[in-house]
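Mods, move this if it's the wrong board.
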Amino acid sequence: VQLQASGGGLVQNGGSLRLSCTSPGFTLDHYAIFWFRQAPGAERERVSCISSFLGGTFFADSVKGRFTLSRDRSKTTVFLQMNNLKPEDTAVYYCATDVSSNCRALRSSDMHHWGKGTLVTVSS
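Not the wrong board. Structure tokens:
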């Protein structure tokens, strides 16, 4: 599974961005898709996850109420909608999967496949 993350950019405090995670030629609906982020000098942290089939979601407390996850109807893309962005959201964002169907995995080391990161910068 090759994942590609895109959609990052520079946005002002309070702005919005939508990140996409795709796998060309491969449907993602069988796998839980995770989003991690890594700020400069910090460890990679789990931000959110959407499970396969039923589409249950998880969000870290730091983003709960501001970020949402969805899958497109073609099942080839997972979207991370980020609203009310804050400077502390500045990081490189990665999508990943542990090729399971659920969001139980907690650590980046649990992931089997990673997309190339996309940089999100929120200016104050």
